Amino acid sequence: MSILEEAWRLSPSVALRPEPFGALAYHFGNRKLSFLKRPELVTVVTTLGEHSDVQSALTAAGIPARDWPAYASALTGLAATDMIRPQEQETTDGAVA
Fold this sequence. Notes:
By secondary structure, the protein is of the alpha+beta class. It has helices spanning 39-47, 54-60, 68-80; strands spanning 8-10, 14-19, 22-27, 33-36, 84-86.
């Protein structure tokens, strides 16, 4: 399965600081710092948790499909440093699966 077909969210340990170029992302747990070099990427990252998959987040942010591979690459890098993480699925009884 491609990252585009998966559900992700911003890690709760990450703070974003808006910058003219996009944002700085700082992970308080592992002390990693990442540069989000496009405001559109910031929009995607901050809204990931509101969507069922990355494709939906990209579509909602107005990112053209031709640019999705670049965003998938950027998000894969953010996932590798725990800036974003998979959304946990809740079961009907409220437990996390």
